[in-house]
Design a protein that fits this description.
The complex is a heterotrimer of chains A (216), B (296) and C (421). By secondary structure, chain B is α/β, with parallel strands linked by helices. Helices cover 36% and strands 30% of the residues of chain B. In chain C, the strands form four sheets. Chain C has a two-stranded antiparallel sheet with strand order 1-4. A two-stranded antiparallel ribbon of chain C has the order 2-3. The two termini of chain C are 33 Å apart. The longest helix of chain C is centred in the middle third of the chain and has 37 residues. In chain C, 66% of the residues lie in helices and 5% in strands. The chains are: A mainly alpha (216), B alpha/beta (296), C mainly alpha (421).
């Protein structure tokens, strides 16, 4: 247990902190650009889905940034603690940050007498954020390129912005249409994307090719 | 124009930390070795010469051209950094081609020189190999090939043999010696063997200062009469280490044969000690010990 | 010069070999397909149709009336809706500011505020009574006071008064001139539709009309996507540990950076031009079908001058911040810029230009609006080109400085000064 805490501390201090600060700053400046008082359900949902969901990109996408350098990655992989543990701890910390920040923001909205269903918006927002982050993690693992990792979720966000209907059950801003169905699909997809991304990163490209060769 | 590097009173600060202290040095044609511990200022000095760092004070001239004219200087120097690499997706040939363009070579020159140089460094058969697939030794050889691509008057090589296997190391040294026939090859190392095998002129650096500049033979001469060898028991070893700087030891059973530096007129020298002819390693250790002694 | 072109060629090949570039192209195509949809051709409107679509009325009195009604409502509620960045921001004003707005209202309507308040309250009560009687909900826009601005007030005067109100509210309100112009949304008449059609095929040209819509959609994407190409290129030297080797070469800093920059621009434009081929052919065909002709390069020409500045700026931001911070921070900067640009629409999405990085023209046709905003659009594009050039010159400066040993450490800018001897 002590080891996990220590890994978590290191990760928090050296890697997550700047991203967390960035996320908090974004939330702090938000009231300058938008009302957070006396909003109705739709207006609140707009903030949660169109704005807060981007926190997922900020927190989750840099999942593999600390060991971007191949030498560092090899070094970490050679240690006794499997990389999977490290990645899971990082993931967990990012998730906790997201949960807390989102909760604080929604509480502020409630304090401002906005009318909305807390649980619905909270989980809806978390899931949209998680999905964007999951896309980033998956493509980061696949192509090992931070630019690609950010590009894909941003593109998906833009697509949702414009061609919402065409994304069907994977529409990111479904609360704007007062629908929760999409969120279940998104949650499922997020879990798959993150699991695939992290396991691919841990197993490594070479091993995957070898495994495929052995099977084929 | 004479092929010569002249450094006068060169200082370099990183913030308040002084990395180079009043360096005065003249380097002429041939292999020139820069020796010193890690962190002695070798890399800083080389980066100054490669125009990657500017000195804080003093003047540097390469072949009569002040270092401030970085464009001219860059056309005269070839630089191989400690950890040379190139874009992983490029093949050896493409990487050479790209760096050749950056060095201002024409298409014709590149077509002539690149295969010739790849041949020289024994990479011609691997010219289509991607950089990311290369071993450390291959990458190093590619590095040297790119550094002499534009036929520079001065070649600056930082730790050329670090990370190479013994065979590669010998080959690499020989390659550098060949290249040094009509130009300056400045190499830095903390491996004494490299210097011994190749360099005529050397400079030894310690804490940003040049503490020796001259030939290897001269250094050996200076150390003559200060190196002793003695066969002692393991028990005595610890005691000896406290008094003298040990430059080498060979353990055989319970006995240890040690080589060590004895400062002049030291009475505590064991009676069975034999005066020996110093090798470069001994001389280097003696020198470092001297320098430290003076500072105290 | 020859070497510069060779460098550009190598850079282009490098981009073409990267996975990121193919994803970039895939993104463009995906976006194009999902957003633009199919091109259905142009048909001449027939008399007697049920609807000819809607348009923003250009009737100045109507706009003034609609705006005044909205203003009275918000004034008495003391709650002004603004959308500075796409999200609702309710503004409540101090008494002092309310007084000032009251004065403006008095000027415009010719009534005293106290009179208006009585009327407003009467109307309010009446509506509530009606609602109680009929059991219906109160709709916000039911509060229809029969109050119009004075005839003596011209549209220009009205707009300038409203701009003052907008300023008092803090911007982004319904009282910006842009918003006023879109305050009256009315059905088109047959005559209007017909004259628009004539204008489209004779003066404007279908290629031009399509191109504007194309640029509108693609501009959204191109204000963010190229930054990824730029960041990837900017970080590449570092990742490959090739910084020192490249730095020690003879090539000028401007030559190195510009070759990378221009190659990225060209490679970003390339898929766009390919995407423009199919609509070019279709619009050419459409023009022929209505007995007109249009230059083959019309559409591509619009795409080039409209979208190149966007790409230039986005790539410049990418290079600049990557060089400055040696990290992917440019994505954040451009991301925020994009977010604000896309969300700060004032008024209609057709012909919304201003100083926005993403000029909007989200409709097919509307030649008159286009002509109106064209000077503004040109100013906008020139400005962004200038900013892009400035940023890339700064990038060269930073690169050059760092190459000579300048460093950004301990949070402070520092250069190791050369000895002047």
């Amino acid at each position: 247990m002590e080891r996990y805490v220590s890994i978590g501390k290191t990760n928090f201090r050296y890697h997550l902190l700047p991203h967390l600060v960035l996320g908090m700053l974004l939330c702090l400046v938000a009231p300058l650009a938008m009302s957070i008082e006396n909003l109705n359900e739709l207006q609140s949902a707009r903030i949660v889905e169109l704005f807060l969901s981007l926190l997922g990109v900020v927190f989750f996408v840099p999942q593999f940034l600390p060991d971007q350098d191949k030498d560092i990655r090899d070094l970490l992989s050679s240690k006794k603690e499997p990389m999977l543990t490290v990645h899971l701890i990082r993931l967990l910390e990012a998730l906790v940050c997201l949960l807390i920040l989102m909760a604080i923001f929604l509480i502020c909205l409630k304090q401002g007498e906005c009318v909305f269903d807390f649980a619905k918006l909270y989980f809806g927002g978390i899931i949209s954020a998680l999905f964007l982050g999951g896309l980033g993690i998956f493509f980061y693992a696949l192509f090992d390129n931070i630019a690609i990792a950010y590009m894909i979720p941003v593109l998906y966000y833009i697509l949702s912005y414009g061609a919402g209907k065409k994304l069907g059950n994977f529409y990111l801003f479904s609360l704007l249409r007062d629908s929760l169905t999409e969120k279940y699909y998104l949650l499922f997809a997020s879990v798959i994307l993150i699991a695939l991304g992290i396991s691919y990163r841990c197993i490594g490209k070479r091993n995957v090719i070898m495994m495929m060769k052995q099977k084929g | 124009m004479e092929t010569k590097i002249i450094l006068k009173n060169v200082n370099k600060f990183y913030g308040t930390k002084q990395a180079l202290k009043n360096v005065n040095l003249t380097i002429t044609e041939g292999m020139f070795g820069l020796l010193g511990k890690n962190g002695a200022g070798k890399t800083t000095l080389m980066k100054v010469l490669a125009t990657l760092h500017s000195q804080t004070g003093g003047t540097v001239e390469i072949c009569g051209i002040p270092i401030t004219e970085s464009k001219k200087i860059r056309s005269m120097i070839g630089y191989l950094p400690q950890d040379f690499s190139m874009y992983g997706s490029m093949s050896a040939y493409d990487a050479m081609d790209y760096l050749g363009v950056l060095s201002g070579l024409t298409k014709k020159e590149r077509k002539e020189r690149i295969p010739y140089l790849l041949e020289q460094v024994n990479l011609l058969n691997n010219r289509k190999m991607k950089v990311k697939a290369m071993s450390g030794g291959m990458r190093r050889r590619l590095g040297i090939a790119q550094a002499i691509l534009h036929n520079p008057k001065v070649l600056i090589v930082d730790e050329p043999t670090a990370g190479l296997d013994p065979e590669e190391r010998v080959r690499f040294r020989n390659l550098l010696s060949e290249i040094a026939k009509d130009r300056i090859v400045l190499l830095s190392t903390h491996i004494v063997g490299d210097i011994e095998a190749t360099c005529e002129q050397i400079a030894v650096m310690d804490e940003g200062e040049i503490i020796y500049h001259g030939t290897v033979a001269n250094l050996l001469m200076q150390a003559r009469g200060k190196i002793y060898s003695s066969e002692i028991s393991r028990m005595e070893l610890e005691e000896l280490k406290k008094t003298f700087v040990v430059t080498g030891m060979l353990t055989m059973g319970n006995k240890v044969t040690v080589r060590y530096v004895v400062p002049e007129n030291n009475p505590s020298n064991p009676s069975n000690a034999i005066l020996v002819e110093p090798n470069v390693e001994d001389a280097y250790m003696w020198l470092m010990n001297q320098a430290r002694g003076e500072k105290v | 010069m020859k070497n510069f072109l060779t460098l550009c060629k190598i850079e282009c090949i490098q981009i073409a070999k990267s996975m990121l570039y193919y994803l970039f192209i895939a993104c463009l195509i995906l976006f194009y397909i999902t957003q633009m949809g199919e091109y259905n051709g142009v048909t001449k409107p027939k008399p007697g149709a049920q609807s000819y679509g809607f348009t923003y009325s250009t009737e100045e009195r109507l706009m003034m009336e609609m705006t005044t009604k909205g203003l009275l409502q918000e004034f008495f509620d003391n709650q002004y809706k603004t959308y500075p960045f796409g999200f609702l921001k309710n503004v409540v004003l101090s008494e002092k500011k309310q007084e000032k707005i009251g004065e403006i209202i008095e000027d415009i309507t010719g009534y005293e505020i106290s009179e208006l308040r009585i009327k407003w309250e009467e109307k309010n009560n009446q509506i509530q009574e009606d609602a109680l009687k009929n059991g219906t909900m109160i709709m916000a826009n039911q509060l229809d006071l029969e109050i119009a601005p004075l005839d003596s007030i011209s549209f220009q005067e009205f707009c300038s008064q409203m701009e003052q109100i907008d300023e008092l509210i803090g911007g982004g309100s319904d009282y910006q001139t842009e918003k006023i112009k879109t305050s009256a949304y009315v059905p088109k008449t047959y005559e209007q539709a017909l004259s628009e059609y004539e204008e489209l095929i004779k003066e404007d040209g279908i290629g031009n009309a399509y191109a504007r819509q194309f640029c509108d959609y693609m501009g959204i994407l191109l204000a963010i996507l190229p930054v990824f190409l730029a960041v990837s290129r900017g970080l590449r030297d570092r990742r490959a540990k090739a910084v020192q080797v490249i730095d020690s070469k003879q090539a000028a800093s401007s030559c190195i950076i510009l070759s990378r920059y221009l190659s990225t621009i060209v490679m970003a434009l390339l898929p766009l031009l390919l995407l423009a081929i199919s609509p070019t052919l279709q619009t050419q065909y459409s023009m022929k079908a209505v007995g007109q002709s249009e230059n083959f390069f019309t559409l591509i020409r619009v795409v080039l001058w409209w979208l190149t500045p966007t790409i230039l700026l986005t790539v410049s931001v990418g290079f600049f911040f990557t060089e400055l911070t040696k990290s992917a921070s440019a994505i954040l900067v451009q991301g925020i810029w994009w977010f604000l640009s896309i969300n700060s629409n004032q008024g209609s999405l057709t012909g919304m230009v201003g100083f926005n990085l993403i000029p909007r023209f989200n409709s097919f046709g509307n030649y008159n609006i286009y002509q109106e905003v064209l000077p503004e659009l040109i100013r906008n594009r020139v400005m962004y080109t200038a900013i892009a050039i400035l940023l890339i010159v700064l990038t060269i400066g930073i690169y050059h400085w760092r190459r000579k040993g300048g460093s950004l450490s301990h949070g402070a800018l520092r250069i190791n000064r050369k000895n002047q001897l």
